[in-house]
Amino acid sequence: MFRAASRLPRRAILTTSVAATGVVLHTSPEREKLSIYPHQTPDILLVDTPSALEEQIGVARRKFIKAYCDTHSQVQGVISRWIGVEHAIENRVKAIISPNESLTPGLLYVGVATLTGSIIARSRFIGARLFLPPVFLFASAQQFLPQTTANLKAYLGLLEDTYFPNFSKKHAIANAHTRMTWDHIKDATQNSREWVTHGAEVAVDKVQEATGLKLKETMGWAQKQAEVKVIEAANAVEQRASEAKAVVEKVIEEKVPEIKVGLEKVGEETKEQVPPKVEEIKRLV
């Protein structure tokens, strides 16, 4: 058998070897083609990885910056509110101070008057020492700075009405009683003055009749009486004139509708009479 195998033709052996070689070559991987250009060096990226200490420092810094920003905003808010309060106070002071009054001598006079009250009440009892300086203060302020004092009173009254309404009502009642008492005192003083003046005039008339001396002319009472009579006559004339004016205005107001109605009637009659005349003129033309 080995001999038979050895006797195979060489052509068959060569064919078999070539086929095997082709199979081997066909199944081998293809080689990668090399580029004719140089290869680019790839970029190397370094990743910064913070440590734990750096992370803690960053957290602390961010917290500090946030706290600083919050504190700064709060401080700015307080400053803004304070500036608003300053502007409000400035506007209120400007509204209270009258532009027609000068504060430089007025406040000086008020201060001097208040010190005068303190000096006068220095050796007095405790009530006078407590009562006289405020009285001198208010009286001098009313005398030297009347408009500013009135504005200040109005502002204090507004504050009282806003924040202390019950006390404001009681204060208003007390002011009304005080005003009524003052009016009664003024009326009583006026009546007493008139009574004293009348008594003096009667006494002077009797002395003048008894002695024949012209005491009224000497004392100037006659001229004063004449002036008083002239003033009374002028007031009476003015009152009569105002009454007559009121009556005339009332009559005019009552007659105005009638006058308007009469004018309207006259206008209507005139309108009714005008067209025939126009037609006659057209016919004549």
From TrEMBL:
<dbReference type="GO" id="GO:0061617">
    <property type="term" value="C:MICOS complex"/>
</dbReference>
<comment type="function">
    <text>Component of the MICOS complex, a large protein complex of the mitochondrial inner membrane that plays crucial roles in the maintenance of crista junctions, inner membrane architecture, and formation of contact sites to the outer membrane.</text>
</comment>
<dbReference type="InterPro" id="IPR033181">
    <property type="entry name" value="Mic26_fungi"/>
</dbReference>
<dbReference type="GO" id="GO:0042407">
    <property type="term" value="P:cristae formation"/>
</dbReference>
<protein>
    <recommendedName>
        <fullName>MICOS complex subunit</fullName>
    </recommendedName>
</protein>
<dbReference type="InterPro" id="IPR019166">
    <property type="entry name" value="MIC26/MIC27"/>
</dbReference>
<keyword id="KW-0472">Membrane</keyword>
<dbReference type="Pfam" id="PF09769">
    <property type="entry name" value="ApoO"/>
</dbReference>
<comment type="subunit">
    <text>Component of the mitochondrial contact site and cristae organizing system (MICOS) complex.</text>
</comment>
<dbReference type="GO" id="GO:0044284">
    <property type="term" value="C:mitochondrial crista junction"/>
</dbReference>
<keyword id="KW-0999">Mitochondrion inner membrane</keyword>
<keyword id="KW-0496">Mitochondrion</keyword>
